[in-house]
From TrEMBL:
Keyword Nucleotide-binding included in the entry's annotation: no
Domain Thiamine phosphate synthase/TenI: 3-183
Molecular-function GO term, any one: thiamine-phosphate diphosphorylase activity
Pathway membership, UniProt: Cofactor biosynthesis; thiamine diphosphate biosynthesis
SUPFAM superfamilies assigned to the protein according to its UniProt record, in alphabetical order: Thiamin phosphate synthase
Protein name as catalogued: Thiamine-phosphate pyrophosphorylase
Gene3D superfamilies: Aldolase class I
């Protein structure tokens, strides 16, 4: 089961140091999501991370940096997905995106390495962002996807995912989970990540 960590949208104290430590602890994919930051700000942020971690970093904006710096991949927001052609990827780089309805998951045909579906539970990091689905309907929808002939995306749960909810995420049939608040809102982000990692196994 895949575990992805998303950066907080705004800077937090010691963020790049903590992110580097989490990558040292085995974090497979770190999504850098800074929606209001300039290209120069994102570049400076990346420069604070050890270059040997770059293949595991995924950018949500300023996508050209992924090719320039040899990052792990690119994530398309809903807005960037509709704005124009896909970014050019280098061999081995991943492409992911975000969906917010089961209909979008069922209807899309463009290939992604994995996709986020949200919000699965009430968000930990956003107020007034409640769960949009029941686990029963998600389980049925993911089961239909797996039985579909041809391409079916790897679907990761996003929104309110914390350690206590990971068993339900697994039982629903998700290929993994993307977390944000469960780590960054913890007084000890490294310990919080280790707990999540231990449950996924």
């Amino acid at each position: 089961m895949r575990l992805v960590l998303i950066s907080p949208p705004q800077a937090v104290a010691n963020e790049t140091h903590l992110a580097s430590e989490l990558l040292d602890q085995g974090l497979a994919r770190f999504h850098v999501r800074k929606p209001t930051w300039s290209r120069a700000e994102v570049t400076a942020y990346l420069a604070d991370l050890p270059a040997h971690h770059y293949p595991r970093l995924v950018l949500h904006s300023h996508h050209s940096l992924a090719a320039e710096l040899g990052l792990g991949g690119v994530h398309l927001t809903a807005a960037s997905r509709h704005r124009g052609p896909r970014p050019t990827l280098q061999p081995g780089q991943t492409l992911s995106t975000s969906f917010h309805t089961l209909a979008e998951i069922r209807q899309h045909r463009r290939r992604y390495d994995y996709v986020f579906l949200s919000p699965i539970f009430d968000s930990l990091s956003k107020s007034d962002y409640p769960a949009a689905f029941t686990l029963t309907e998600i389980t049925a929808a993911l089961g239909q996807l797996r039985r579909r002939a041809g391409y079916a995306p790897q679907v990761l749960a996003l929104g309110g995912v914390e350690a206590a909810r990971l068993p339900a995420v697994q039982q629903a049939g998700f290929a993994g989970a993307a977390v944000l608040g469960a780590v960054w809102q913890s007084p000890d982000p490294v310990a919080a990540f280790r707990e999540l990692q231990s449950i996924i196994g």
